[in-house]
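Encode chain A's predicted structure.
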Amino acid sequence: MKGNENMVPFILIPIGLILLLLYVKERMKEKSARSLILKTLASCSFLAISFCGLLKVVLGLWGFEDLSFGRLVELVTFPMLIFAGQFFGLLGDVWLGVRSDSSEENKYLMTAGFASFGLGHVLFIDALITTFWRGEGLWWILVPALLTVLYGIVTMPLGQKLGMNFGSFHGASVIYGMILFFAAVFAGSLLMKNGFSSCRLWLFFAGIILFAASDAVLARVYFGKENGKKTLVLANLIMYYAAQFLIAASTVV
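Encoded structure for chain A:
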């Protein structure tokens, strides 16, 4: 039974890839209700993988009465927070996917999308703190924090120079970018702290780097002169879903 349980995430990955290919094919034609449904289903597949990671831990601990409550919480925390973070990612997918031609309505949907993804990254950071940092060594978190502040200062005036017009989303874009930047740099810092030996951290780190790259491309799609260019949309989708699948996989290793 346990062997079958461990195979479930590896069955979900090809299912998710098939759904992603169907979504990309539909999305390259035009945005439609069908493409939104396929996108949501593709997002549900990476969410299902992280849920399997959480379920695997819970079932694996069943009957271990000798474990303290604190230890139980510690073991469950990482997959639980990753699952929660990816759930908010799915919500962000939905909010951004239902944008309409109304500029006022789009403003609220974009705000909801930013907030959902931002909260998801905060939950990812919480997973890293509670599982891999645990208050051991201030420099492992302080250096990423200082680099994040520097990143915010440097990128704040860069939008127009890069040919992008963020409009009313300028402040939100900088804050969101700082949260994502910190998650990536902090994960790299924790990899060094753990001697580059954690497969779970490597998967998360690769995923969060791809997430940042996909968002950089998405920024050009939404706010740049290349708005809606199909090659950029395709690049964003490939990197985004690869990122989410890698992050989800970090819960099952």
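The radius of gyration is 19 Å.
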